[in-house]
Amino acid sequence: MNSTDIELHDVTKTYLTGPAEVRALDDVSITIEPGEFVVLLGPSGSGKTTLLNLVGGIETPSEGRVMVSGMDVSTLTGRAMTRYRRSEVGFVFQFFNLVPTLTAAENVEVVAELSGPDPGTRARLALDRVGLGDRADHFPGQLSGGEQQRVAIARALVKDAPVLLTDEPTGSLDLDSGRQILGLLRRAADAGHTVLLVTHNTAIAAIADRVVELHDGRITSDRHVERPLPTEEVDW
Q1: How far apart are CA 134 and CA 97, in angstroms?
Q2: CA pair distance 204, 27, nearest whole angstrom
Q3: Could you give the CA distance from residue 82 to residue 98 in angstroms, rounded to a whole number?
Q4: CA 224 → CA 3, 8, 212, 219, 228, distances in Å?
Q5: What is d(CA 43, CA 102) in angstroms, rounded to the nearest whole number?
Q6: pLDDT at 88
Q7: Three-state DSSP class for 221?
Q8: What contacts 84, CB < 8 A, 6 or more positions away?
Q9: Measured CA distances, 91 to 11, 196, 197, 225 (Å)
Q10: pLDDT of residue 212
Q11: How many CB atoms lie within 10 A of CB 173?
Q12: Parallel, antiparallel, or unpaired: how do β-strands 89-93 and 37-41 relate?
């Protein structure tokens, strides 16, 4: 895995809501360095998730360019976009999106099959990495919320994608489980993944390398954190 830089150049994203035009992002430019752990902070409707979706290739900008490791993601279509999503980005959401009839290992293996050889072994190694090797054969309904989110992170990590995009990954978890998830993401960044974490929880910003605040589709603050807080000390 190579660390990946992300650049947004003059990016605007608009949606039509009936006769009205909603500007979710408004002329946003930002560069995220390889291996940075960046928290995107702001209230609902500020543009955080839209920015994440543009980097992930889930949406395309109305104006501007989205560059990931020198590739213009905003121009990709069809198979090229599928290859990008498969190899360059891993997604973790607030809701775990696990298949209830598959075990933890099988949920991870489904993604592993798309990204390389020996998917069964790689799936179990990914579960070991998130501390769930002993729960590999359990179904989602037999796992706690925190464990299900760790399976979701293993599913993102098994591709060894250089970019991890996480949208409110602790939003439905208690404090202890949330700390475990943040610790896993922190270690992923320390291992070279570029991590973007969307949240409205200001306490989480303390663990990041960098905090970018958005309001009404614009970046209102962009600061580096001199000494990120250890994840076991974060509180909310």
Answers
A1: 21
A2: 26
A3: 20
A4: 19, 18, 9, 14, 9
A5: 35
A6: 92
A7: strand
A8: 57, 68, 71, 73, 76
A9: 21, 10, 10, 24
A10: 98
A11: 20
A12: unpaired
- Check residue 2 and give its pLDDT: 56
pLDDT of residue 160: 86
- Rg of the chain (C-alpha set): 17
Owner of token pair 């001199």: 226
Q: Looking at residue 3, what is its pLDDT?
A: 59
Count of other CB atoms within 10 angstroms of residue 143: 19
φ/ψ (deg, to 5) at 125: -65, -40
φ, ψ dihedrals at 207, nearest 5°: -90, -10
Are 51 and 40 a contacting pair, CB within 8 Å?
yes
Question: What are the residue ranges of helices labelled H in 3-118?
Answer: 48-56, 78-87, 104-112
pLDDT along the chain (236 residues), means of 10: 81 90 95 96 94 95 94 93 92 91 97 90 94 96 94 92 94 90 94 94 95 97 96 92
Could you tell me if 7 and 67 are in contact, meaning their C-beta atoms sit under 8 angstroms apart? yes
Tokens of 181: 């998830």
| Predicted TM-score (pTM) above 0.85 | yes
